[in-house]
Amino acid sequence: MNKDVIIACDFNSKEQLFDFLDKFKEEKPYLKVGMELFYAGGIEIVKEIKKRGHKIFLDLKLHDIPNTVKKAMAVLSSFDVDMVNLHASGGSQMMKGAIEGLTRADGTRPLLIAVTQLTSTSQEMMESELLIEKPIDDVVMSYALNAKNSGLDGVVCSPLEAGKVHGACGEKFITVTPGIRLAGDAVGDQKRVTTPALAKEIGSDFIVVGRSITGAEDPVSAYRKCVKEFLG
Ligand code: C5P
Q: Which residues line ligand 1 (CB under 6 A)?
């Protein structure tokens, strides 16, 4: 199923992660493991999560020369993760290499998603430091098209951009969208947030939810609420 709620497991230890996961007695949520948890727990933590029956989006945002990314992706693919990502700014040869590396002997592979411009990048920073002078929205859409033309499955973007990405890259091109809050929750450091229901309406394929679930008094019912709004 290419629609789901992914919980961002932004914990810095194995203990914190498993304390959190032990609360889920009935569901096996799709989990995002990012750099913090991966560097703290290594590949062992990924194997343990898989053994418990969860799907994993391994959010390591690879960016290197094509051959290195290809080989690194082959290693990640062997751990049976379900979704991985890279920076589209690495270029089409790198993205094609990544797909080759990810593809297993039986032809299956994890979903491969591109980061276009990080949401922390501003127009001003892009122009003065990266020397890119086009409007940031055009840059994001052009990177998304490069990703699609290189054979990738989708991009990470704001739910507010999901409709535009689908318009430019097709309905089947996956949008993975953080920046989600249940109504009434603190926004924190996110700039523009939407509810799971609105993300569904705009056309997100996967929503990534962190603090609205991990920081809730009752994470299981917060997760269920997200699932009901987004998938129900
Ligand atoms: O707690 P919160 O729901 O804001 O967490 C969102 C997750 O999505 C975090 O793991 C964050 O690093 C990630 N993310 C994001 N914005 C992006 C890319 C990733 O918030 N543009």
A: 8, 10, 34, 118-119, 156, 178-180, 188, 190, 208-212
Active site residue 61: yes
Report how far residue 32's alpha carbon sits from residue 59's, in angstroms, rounded to the nearest whole number.
Answer: 7
Pull the structure tokens for residue 222.
Answer: 């917060």
pTM value > 0.85: yes
From CA 38, how far away is CA 140, in angstroms rounded?
Answer: 27
Measured CA to CA, the distance from residue 118 to residue 223 in angstroms comes to 26
- How many Å apart are CA 199 and CA 8, to the nearest integer? 16
Ligand 1 atom closest to Cα of 180?
Answer: 3
Measure 178 CA to ligand 1 centroid, in angstroms: 5
Amino acid letter, 200:
K
**What distance in Å separates the CA atoms of residue 208 and residue 226, rounded to the nearest whole number?**
10
210 Cα: distance to centroid of ligand 1 (angstroms): 7
Helix (H) or strand (E) holding 44: helix 35-51
Q: Which residue minimizes the CA distance to atom 13 of ligand 1?
A: 178
Taking the C-alpha atoms of residue 151 and residue 174, their distance in angstroms, rounded to an integer, is 12
What are the average pLDDT values for consecutive 10-residue runs of the chain, which has 232 residues? 92 94 98 95 95 98 98 96 98 98 97 94 94 95 98 96 96 97 92 93 97 97 98 94
* Residues 154, 111 contacting (CB under 8 angstroms): yes
